[in-house]
Specification:
The protein is an alpha+beta fold. It has helices at residues 8-11, 15-22, 110-119, 139-146; strands at 4-5, 26-31, 34-47, 74-79, 83-89, 97-108, 162-166, 176-179, 196-199. Helix content is 15%, strand content 30%. β2 (26-31) and β3 (34-47) form a beta hairpin. It binds a DNA duplex (12 and 12 nucleotides) through β4, β5 and α4.
DNA sequence: AGATGGATTTTC
DNA sequence: AAAATCCATCTC
């Protein structure tokens, strides 16, 4: 199969375009000698200080500094005190924008993902492992499964840690749905923008 | 439906 | 210093 790692320049383009084109690409994680991969099926775009749902809407702070970094930089943040969310910085340096990876379909390393999920905070008292279809179908879940934490925050995507690959799968325009983003009701009018993109019939 | 749990940000 | 908020997930 033909595959190549997305170059830095892929992310150095308008955020909405990057978001849409990330659908159908493969998130590839290398950790402790293991390889994990998954097909990206849902993303959200966060764009600029005027986007009230973007962390940078409150200005440039210690936490949001990374959003102003070079495209292709990893922005990892904690939500609800428990879960990591993985974003890739887009557009150009000094302009705060990123794409949040919300869901992938597990491909390689499923056994490792299950192990990582069982170790995670919220599963300490769990009775059973979730089915494969629920392993990485949320932003916090995929970070648990892929072992993505704040340790990657601020680093560039890289071959030996975390990359996104193009495996030459054709995604037709008609298979992409645009929906409002999740959990951003506080963002007033911005909450209605259809900045969440997902591959139809893949959830 | 209710509990979780910590960093960031805002308010006093 | 304290309170409010938050791009979610889990069990029941």
């Amino acid at each position: 199969m033909k595959r190549f790692i997305l170059p830095w320049s892929f992310f150095a383009r308008p955020t909405l375009r990057v978001a849409r084109e990330l659908l159908g690409k493969y998130l590839v994680r290398r950790l402790d000698g293991g390889v994990y991969s998954g097909k990206i099926i849902e993303v959200e775009a966060y764009k600029g200080q005027e986007d009230l749902a973007c962390h940078a809407s409150r200005g440039r702070t210690k936490r949001t500094e990374v959003l102003y970094a070079k495209p292709g930089t990893i922005y990892a943040h904690l939500v609800y005190g428990m879960y990591w969310c993985f974003n890739v910085v887009t557009d150009r340096a000094e302009y705060p924008a990123a794409v949040l990876i919300r869901a992938v379909v597990p491909v390689e390393g499923v056994g490792l993902m299950e192990k990582n999920r069982d170790k995670s905070v919220s599963r300490r008292r769990a009775a059973a492992s979730p089915p494969v279809s629920h392993l990485t179908n949320g932003p916090g879940k995929l970070c648990m499964a892929f072992g993505i934490t704040g340790a990657l925050h601020g680093k560039m995507l890289g071959r030996d840690t975390l990359t996104i690959e193009d495996r030459a799968e054709k995604i037709s325009r008609g298979s992409i749905s645009a929906l409002p983003r999740v959990g951003v009701e506080y963002a007033k009018h911005c909450a209605k923008y259809p900045l969440r993109f997902q591959l139809a019939r893949s959830l």
